[in-house]
Amino acid sequence: MHRLSIGMFDSGVGGLTVLKEVKALLPHERIIYFGDTARLPYGNKSPQTVTKYALESALFLLTKGIKLLVVACNTSSAFALNILQKKLPVPVIGVIDPGALEAVGHTKNGRIGVIGTKGTIRSMAYERSIKKISPGAVVISRPCPLFVPIVEEGLEDDEVAYLMAEKYLKELKRSDIDVLVMGCTHYPALEKVIKKVMGKKITIVHTGRETAKEVRNTLEKKRLLNDKAKGGCEYFVTDAPEAFEEIGGRLLGERLTRVKSLRNLDFKDFLLSS
Length: 274
Description:
The chain is built from eleven helices and ten strands. It has about 270 residues and is an alpha/beta fold. It has two domains: about 5-95 and about 210-270, Rossmann fold, CATH 3.40.50.1860; about 95-205, Rossmann fold.
């Protein structure tokens, strides 16, 4: 079992920031990444639709032989994590709870900011997770919808990124928070800009980094850790593999290889029998 791969899915390329952290922390593990690029974004879809897509993505990865699943998507973690954990025969880890735990661990005044897509913020998933750990915490959330296209257009170092960060974050900066959670997997590409706008006194939580730690801890507990083999990554997308390679390569800081297109994938083959 320990020789099996880690499965990971997202609606597109953003989850590669999570993969990057898992890869750095667990270099001997093999990772199979699934990007549902034909149906992105998930953030503007209903909870029912997101759950359906998440189940289909997870079931596809199960057919590849995995020992653990990472839901590298905040929207899917918000809406579908519980059902995935109940239905699947492998451990399932989302990105929200690890980020919430880290935020609570760092705050000194109990005031925590969260930024994300409209869908993630609307779900209040981070607020629920944070308050479950620390009921007295004050959570202030703000959607930052243009951050994703800024990253996908490669403009994270452009002035437009700084101007939008100032616009989105000015209220949070005035709200006396001492921790800010980047609640979207694209946002680590903007971490430098976000830190510049928020200032040195604010702790920035990278949910992908915390998720990677949770993956390692879970594999160790389940005795599934692979610490000797040669690691590697394999990628599957449902559309536009060229765009995935271009944007994903920038997020990972390396050329993407082994990207396979599944344009004709029929998800009916992977429906759960329950």
